[in-house]
Structures are given as structure tokens and as C-alpha cells.
């Protein structure tokens, strides 16, 4: 039996692969493992059946045999531990790659997410414009630091790893904001991630869900 | 040689153990491993020597032999993989415990952190009061979901794990806000974490740094 992951029936990102199921789809494509995708509507997300999979009512989740997992980072790490291709075999390099997974999700993603959420949830508030420079600055500081560490390297620490996979998915959400575009090195890094055949296959799969939804309704 | 971790020379939390070095101290105490602590001033934090340890200029970092790691989550996971006591041996339970580590840092900590940061950075802004209910509601929703999942259990999934360790450190930061106190089960869960001898030893060690600093001025 293939693992079953969950994704949104109605992706709110216009099929741009910004939703967190993209991370799991991409990881599975990198290690050449198939999966089945169960689509969950916004109403189903907070219902008991899905809460049993994820107490916070979020996607993605991952079910394989007797294992039920949630949290995209944990799912990607689990996949990376099961199949070769996403973590170095050498123990110190492996620990550092996992370090970049946490950096992507705990140092870079929070300010990226706050910046994005304000644009969705607080756009009509009187303070929206006044807070934008601060929110942008928080992201810009992290990107400057990340660009400095990356330098001219292809990936964050040696070969492509699950750390790069998560980092690229986080950075992609800034597309069009000008923040990534301000760092040629980071823009090229994101483009390298997006050019990987596994990314392309994962992107096409999530895009197909969006297009089917648009076509039917 | 013991591992060397970094912590703030001047802890901004009044010695309450809210800074992220507490996670690493606690994890090392749980597995009964000693460490050396290098204190870093705010000025040193953003200087090249510390940036070489952590490109984002944050603490804690972890150096042991040839390994240099940053990100508190990655350091705790590394410790948990090296020594028994923080992750179950059974593979599915181990994967779920790691899932709770990511849930603590990627689902619970971001809204907790935003709530806390607004109180520090935006307290004097005209919109501060108007945004408080929204920021509180984001945290309250997650706590309600977490309390429901925890139910009457002692820990999040079987025995105490690195997932509980991280979750307790995240929840502790809400102490006194009324948000944890609204859920008797969560308050008891945090208290159980704080009552562990390893927590007590780690807390005393970080407290001693604060008290030495206060004494010397």
C-alpha cells in the first residue's frame, strides 16, 4: 500500500505550490516513492475524522501502514530517514542538514508567514501600511543572513538535502514581493530547487488538483 | 571534551528559563551529559565569530568535536539521537515523538512568539491594543486543540519525549498570560515538565548565570 497524504481540495494559493503538501510531494518525488492523495475540504479540515489525523486540523498528514504523522517537517524527515537521497550518510553532515530543516521552519518561516498573513488577514486594518516596513525588515534581515551564508554555493551544506527542500519551499512563498529578488544568490538558489525534476513532478501533481477544481467549479 | 553550548551573557528573561538555551540544557540533563557553556554578549552575537557558529546570530549553538550545530530543535534532536532517554526505541513511536517536536516549534511556537514579540516591540504603537485579541485568539485556538489532544494523558504520546520537552518550553513562555491557566490539563502538563529533576537542574544552571550577572552589575 502506498502512503496516503492529505492536501486541500480547494488550494487557496492558485495552484502555485505554496501549500505545505508541496513539501511532502516533493520529498516523495526525490526518493521516487509513490503516494495516494486524499483531498480534504475546508469543512472537513476541522471535523473529527481529520482532527484524528492532525489535532490542529491542518494539512498535510501522512499515513503509511500503522504510522500516522502530521507536521510537514516531521513527515519530510521521516521520508528522508526511510529512503536514500535527502540526507547525507555521513553523521555530522546529516546532523547539519537536519539543522537546516529546523532553520527553514523555525527561523525563516515564522517571519515569512507573518508577512504573508498580514497581507491576507489585516489588509483592511488601519495599521496595515504602518506595520509593513517592520514585517518586511524582519524577513529582509533573515534573507540577508541566509544569502551571506549561502554565498556562491549551490546548496546550503554540500549536496542537496531535505534542508534545502524545506528552505526552497519557504522562500518560494515570497515570490513577487521583491525580497528574494533583492538577492541574486537566493533567487538562483530557489530557481535551482524549482528546476529539479522531482520538484517539477510534484508541482505538476498539485497543479492538476487546482486545475480540476477550477474546471468543475 | 564536553560539548560547548552558547547562551546569553545577559539573559533578557529575568532568569526565568524562557531563552532557547534552556531546551538544550534540559535535554542534556535528561540524558545525564555534561556540557560547557560559553556566554555571548549581545554585541558578540552579531560578530563574525558567533556568526560562524550561527549565521543568524542566535543562541544556542552546540559544538562537540567536529560537529557545529545551531537551531535549538536540531540540537535537541541530535542529543536525543545520541543518548537514550528522549525518544522511544520503537520506530513508529519515535517518528510520532519527532512529530511533536515539529508541532511545538512550527505550529505552537509561532503564534506564541508573535504574541510575546508584540508585547515587547509594539506596546507603544497605536494599534497595540486593537491587535491583542487577534494575537491572543491565535494562541488560544492552538492551546484548545492541544489540550483536547492531550486529554487526561501525562505526556503527548506515551512516555516523556523530546516532543514534550520542546512543547513545555514553548508553553512556559505564556506563564502569567492567563492562556495556559485557562486549561487545567495544560497547566498540569507544564507543571509536570517543570517538576522533572533534569528540568530543575537545567533551570538552576541558567538561573545561576542570571544571578551572577545581576550581582556583578
Describe the structure.
Two copies of one chain form a homodimer. By secondary structure, the first copy, chain A, is an alpha+beta fold. The first copy, chain A, folds into two domains: 4-85 and 198-216, 3-Layer(aba) Sandwich (Glutaredoxin); 91-196, Glutathione S-transferase Yfyf (Class Pi), Chain A, domain 2 (Up-down Bundle), CATH 1.20.1050.10. Helix content of chain A is 59%, strand content 8%. The first copy, chain A, has nine helices and four strands. Chain A has helices spanning 21-30, 42-45, 48-53, 72-82, 91-121, 128-150, 162-172, 184-195, 197-216, and strands spanning 4-8, 36-40, 61-64, 67-70. Chain A has a four-stranded mixed β-sheet with strand order 2-1-3-4. In chain A, β1, α1 and β2 form a beta-alpha-beta unit. In chain A, α1 (21-30) runs antiparallel to α7. The longest helix of chain A is centred in the middle third of the chain and has 31 residues, at 91-121. The model of chain A has no long low-confidence stretch (mean pLDDT 96). At the A-B interface, β4, α4, α5 and α6 of A face β4, α4, α5 and α6 of B.
